[in-house]
Design a protein that fits this description.
Heat Shock Protein 90; DUF3298 domain-containing protein; 8 strands; 2 domains; signal; 27% strand; 259 residues
Length: 259
Amino acid sequence: MIKFVASGMMILSIAMLLSACGNHSDVARTSASAAPSMASEPVKEQPAIRVETYMKDKISIAYPQLANLSDAAKQNKINEALKDKALEAVRYYEGSEGELSLTIDQSSEMRREHLISVIFKGMGNVEGAAYPNNHFYTANMDLKTGKPLRLSDLIDIDADFVNKLKASKPKDGDPESVEQAARTHLNDGYAEEDWIGALRAADLPGTDNIANAYSYVMNDSLGVSLGVPHALGDHVEYEIPIAELGPLLTPVGRDLLGK
């Protein structure tokens, strides 16, 4: 009887040992499968965005502000630049006589890993003026450096780029008559070398931006807004697929748009 119990205990011990070995094998497999996630890239920082509004008299301008960046100094720098850009429409009317009514909305924003692109649209009118002005302007921010980006930071602006712009169509939604008139304006408004100079001045404030040109980024395209006569709506937008811009992208452009 004692031998039976001993044998039974031995069998039980062996079974427990085998079971423990089996459990150890499962733990090893679990750890092995979890290892890649431990070695994967850290989660990239994605700033939150809130909308604030500048209000004064009959002026209302909405603009974005970043939040939750780990680098507070960079966040403040970007936010100051975004607000300053939003208020560009106010400076447009400096020296004007009569009461100003101005409403600007942040119509869209696009975020890439290290880039935010914002479109501001709205209308302004000075009391006594013949007609109101339709405004369209943009802000592009490099989230790596905290600096504003202009079209010339992203694109080597040369004859090839001008020709691509001329070959593109105004953004969907523009009436056919406006499209034709805008195309005529684009093709006949300046000589090629003048367009190169005008586009190199895109995104500058004030009179330095002779074509009233602004750039923006969509999910898979680069947009350029150009000033046109008031009868055409004051501005018209063209969008070129980023995939078609490969050779024209600057190193900064390839870094921010090429992913």
